[in-house]
């Protein structure tokens, strides 16, 4: 009989440079010795310059993926709209809200009683933001219009599932320890009665599990893209809405469109 062939010794796989770096970083963070040079954070997205982006007209699929990647990184910024609205100050958000919605929010703020306000708090996201709809429509071509100078609209609907609360507050003038006049915000109920101030990070009893569909859009004018702006909110499509639309004549008012 021939000699049994000894199994070859396998080389132990070496951890990749990225894996080793990640382990070192985790160890440093646990010990509190966080290095200044941490490298680029994961999932950092740098939008390519306009000339390097896929075209909406000739490569819609790739451009859609790129825009959604950028949009997804900014979803958490939407909460600041509610915070400013609750505080009664829309100035920091004016250039990010479409005119129709901006006018509606201003009107609602104007109807509030003097020295009262609202405090909106996002406690946590209950699931990751999800793209519910993404559509682009190019308006009908005008006579003499170049393909690179077309007009259109891109619109996205984002599903946001979060735990949030809204607290009524009353602004009261008082004096601090140095007898300086200051304005203090006191939580009150719907009847204006003062309530106990919750501890930092505590979730109030009126916090609700909310599912919202936020509509964001950008315009294309003469081939140039505008910025993403908040159009408003919408609701889930119901069967009655589907049947209602089926009874209407099918018209493509915007020309070419894509789901």
Which descriptors would you attach to this protein?
Nuclear Transport Factor 2, Chain: A, disordered N terminus, disordered C terminus, 8-stranded antiparallel β-sheet, 29% strand, 259 residues, alpha+beta, 5 helices
| Class of secondary structure makeup | alpha+beta
Catalogue the unreliable spans. 1-12, 251-259
Percent helix? 10-25%
User: What portion of residues belong to β-strands?
Assistant: 25-35%
Question: Describe it for me?
Answer:
Pfam families: MBA1. This protein has 259 residues and is of the alpha+beta class. It has a single domain (60-247), classed as Roll (Nuclear Transport Factor 2, Chain: A), CATH 3.10.450. It is 22% helix and 29% strand. The chain has five helices and eight strands, in the order H-H-H-H-E-E-E-E-E-E-E-H-E. Strands 1, 2, 3, 4, 5, 6, 7 and 8 form an eight-stranded antiparallel sheet that branches. The longest helix has 15 residues, at 17-31. It starts with 16 loop residues before the first helix and ends with a strand. Mean pLDDT is 76; it is low at 1-12 and 251-259.
């Amino acid at each position: 009989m021939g000699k049994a062939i000894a199994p070859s010794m396998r080389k132990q796989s070496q951890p990749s440079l990225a894996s080793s770096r990640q382990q070192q970083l985790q160890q440093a963070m646990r010990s509190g010795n966080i290095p200044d040079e941490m490298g680029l954070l994961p999932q950092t997205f740098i939008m390519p310059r306009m000339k390097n982006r896929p075209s909406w007209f000739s490569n819609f699929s790739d451009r859609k993926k790129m825009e959604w990647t950028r949009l997804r990184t900014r979803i958490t910024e939407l909460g600041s709209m509610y915070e400013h609205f609750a505080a009664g100050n829309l100035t920091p958000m004016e250039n990010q809200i479409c005119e129709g919605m901006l006018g509606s929010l201003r009107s609602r703020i104007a109807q509030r009683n003097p020295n009262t306000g609202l405090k909106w708090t996002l406690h946590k996201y209950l699931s990751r933001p999800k793209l519910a709809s993404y559509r682009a429509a190019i308006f009908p071509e005008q006579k003499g219009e170049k393909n690179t100078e077309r007009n259109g609209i891109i619109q996205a609907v984002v599903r946001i599932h979060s735990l949030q609360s809204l607290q009524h507050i009353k602004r009261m003038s008082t004096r601090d320890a140095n007898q300086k006049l200051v304005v203090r915000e006191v939580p009150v109920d719907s009847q204006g009665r003062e309530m106990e101030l919750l501890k930092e990070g505590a979730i109030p009893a009126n916090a609700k599990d909310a599912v919202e569909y936020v509509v964001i859009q950008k315009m294309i004018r003469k081939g140039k893209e505008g910025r993403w702006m908040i159009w408003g909110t919408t609701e889930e499509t119901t069967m009655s809405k589907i049947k209602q639309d089926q009874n209407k004549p099918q018209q493509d008012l915007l020309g070419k469109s894509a789901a």
